[in-house]
Amino acid sequence: MLASHAAMAQRVVLLPGDGIGPEIIGSAVEVLDAVGADLEYDELVFGGASIDAHGVALTDETLSACKDADAVLLAAVGGPKWDTTDPDKPRPEQGLLGLRKGLGLFANLRPVKPIPALYDASPLKRELIDRTDLTVVRELTGGIYFGEKSRTADRASDACVYTREEIERIARVAFRAAKSRVTSVDKANVLETSRLWREVVRDVHANEFPNIELEHLLVDNAAMRLVAAPRHFEVILTENMFGDILSDEAAMLTGSIGMLPSASLGQGGPGVFEPVHGSAPDIAGTGAANPLAMILSAAMMLRHGLGMEAQSAAVESAVERALAEGLRTPDLGGTANTKEATQAVLKHL
Q: Which of 67, 140, 176, 250 gets the highest tally of CB atoms within 10 A of its CB?
């Protein structure tokens, strides 16, 4: 019986990365083990740690292991040690772009649902954020980040390119994620790529998802409305750069970027699940890091990557109950360290 049980275990690649990454990924694994997820782990270097060890942020071996896994759990990358403006020097962030490209991850999902126990930590008034429950669906592989780049001493350019196919597939992800409404965000009054975006999203809506309401907003209006009336949104669909900016803005509704998980998904292959926050090198090694976004990213992995809905819900509920009982890490105005925060969640599983 044991042999067949072992064969059923799903494989997860762990990429601790840099800064606080190795500390918080340990917390996530403790919670995954406690919730009864039958998983096998393969831990590999990534980001700055990989640059130090191998000269590149993502090795072929690491990418290959990720492709063969059922899911990838990533902590955080980067730090001042590897900051450079030299285009020929490796940077930790190149590992992220390489991983997304190599795994064909084109959709980034960021749920933003402020937890009632933390309403007072948000810079916005309680009545503004109350009952906010939105998801930003960001296109990950096109746009200005991946367009052709040129640079001379006095001139630089970044091409912003989108194809109909790229817009169609991300639009489908957004419509499937929505219960009633999708807000597509673009800059169609100025950008040709946005005009194509709006046209294609309209087509996908009319032909495949007519029962979901669709509205179009210009990105500047959307940024303003996110702060003025966040409850207005259910699913925000947008391209790569706008999504990068808007999802960080939305993160602040929760009071701390240390609370937000994310999922990057493709078609059929393993997804990558990671907290929205960075590697926080200033607190690395102090044991003060908030592990909750990492733990919630593990919950997203259980749901979207491994099909374990019950375990995912159990982890999310344990985090909410720990916070309701008063758990606060330093970024939330409290004193709980990484270990204490992890124990508080474990207690409620």
A: 140
Domains 1-107+257-349 and 123-254 agree in fold: yes
Q: How buried is 190 (Cβ within 10 angstroms: 0-12 exposed, 13-18 middle, 19+ buried)?
A: exposed
- Full-model pTM: 0.86
Q: How far apart are CA 27 and CA 22, in angstroms?
A: 9
Match 């402020």 to its residue by tokens: 114
> What confidence tens digit (pLDDT) does each residue in 169-198 have?
999 999 999 999 999 999 999 999 999 999
Domain boundaries, the chain: 1-107+257-349, 123-254
Q: Helices then strands (H, E): number in the chain?
A: 13, 12
Coil vs helix vs strand at 37 = coil
Tell me: the pLDDT tens digits for 124-142? 889 999 999 999 999 998 9
The residues facing 15 across adjacent strands are 74
Q: Which residues contact 327 (CB under 8 A, 6 or more apart)?
A: 334, 336, 340, 341, 344, 345
- 123-254: CATH topology is Isopropylmalate Dehydrogenase (3.40.718)
Give me the active site residues, please: 145, 187, 220, 244, 248
Is 1-107+257-349 assigned to CATH 3.40.718.10?
yes
